[in-house]
Design a protein that fits this description.
three-stranded mixed beta sheet, single chain, 13% strand, alpha+beta, 11 helices, 54% helix, 318 residues
Length: 318
């Protein structure tokens, strides 16, 4: 007689009984653990897919440029769910912004930062998996459209808020438009370039400068690919021509990286791109807040009153 079925059934019974005896709290914890594991698996799978080839890398960089600023894990998991997402927020955040989520809208898995207190009483920061909704899934006041800028304006803003000194140089090697020199904390720039080319070159070097911080062990070679990608995001975000960018070589460099290292690479790209973009936006905000001469000035009332009083005195003395 074949006893395998009987023995296997007897072995499975205690496991089934143990599962049935789980408390609601344990079931909830197990469910949440499975959700977290699934979310991180999707993040890792997307990071791997981004490095598949140049087109895949460019597609994710386009998404990072078009989407509102997010953590790297959110950029990856949102891209995995829908590359068309542009402005995701949770239900409560949209409510605070005066917009309502459309009935029946299916949210996207999203990592929301969460502050909590450890058992020893110290504060800590973690995350909770929640649902986020893209702006296309909401109704309400439309956000103001961003003002289109000419390449020359964007270049001026990039230079205005540069985190390091810029200096023109006619000593740069051929085909080098700009280069950050750590020893002098300076970006040397070739003069008389087309505005879009100058923007991309300086943005790349500003990204390099952002990596030159204590503890990073900065070398140009170690951060060349990340800076190149960050310049692409900044240029794409503001409408600068990006047709000269190619990413096959970037992906070749990623062949020796494990998944965690690929995520770190993309995190570096995102952080450097956001640093460059913030400087540009800050420059435009400051320009908008400057007091400018008015084309339709109000007449100087005290001067008119004085002239009127003098005219009345002259008339009275006659």
């Amino acid at each position: 007689m074949d006893l395998s079925k009987l023995i296997n059934k007897a072995a499975e019974q205690p496991q089934a009984e143990a599962a049935a005896q789980q408390t609601p709290k344990e079931e909830y914890a197990a469910l949440k653990k499975a959700e977290r594991e699934d979310a991180w698996a999707r993040v890792d799978a997307t990071a791997e897919a981004v490095f598949k080839d140049g087109a895949s890398m460019q597609a994710w960089l386009d998404f990072a440029a078009a989407c509102t600023p997010q953590s790297t894990r959110n950029l990856l998991i949102l891209y995995n769910q829908n590359p068309a997402i542009r402005h995701p927020r949770t239900f409560d955040k949209w409510k605070e912004a005066g917009r309502s989520v459309l009935a029946g809208a299916a949210g996207y898995t999203f990592f929301a930062e969460q502050r909590y207190t450890r058992e020893d009483g110290t504060p800590a920061t973690g995350y909770a998996l929640v649902k986020a909704f893209d702006i296309s899934q909401t109704r309400g006041p439309q956000p103001a459209a961003e003002t289109p800028r000419e390449p020359e304006e964007l270049l001026a803003a990039l230079i205005e808020q540069s985190p390091v000194r810029l200096e023109l140089s006619d000593q740069l090697p051929d085909k080098v438009q700009a280069q950050y020199v750590p020893a002098q904390h300076t970006i040397f720039v070739r003069n008389n370039m087309e505005a879009g080319t100058a923007f991309c070159a300086i943005a790349r070097e500003q990204a390099h400068a952002s990596f030159d911080t204590v503890g990073r062990g900065y070398t140009r070679q170690a951060f060349a690919a990340q800076s190149y990608c960050a310049a692409y995001i900044a240029a794409k975000k503001f409408g600068i021509d990006t047709s000269a960018f190619r990413f096959d070589k970037v992906c070749e460099l990623g062949t020796g990286l494990d998944t965690q290292s690929k995520r770190s690479f993309l995190s570096d790209v995102k952080s450097a791109a956001y640093t460059v973009s913030r400087g540009i936006r800050r420059s435009f905000r400051e320009m908008e807040q400057m007091i400018q001469p008015d084309a339709f000035p109000v007449a100087d009332q005290p001067r008119l009153a004085k002239a009127k009083a003098e005219k009345s005195r002259d008339a009275g003395s006659r």
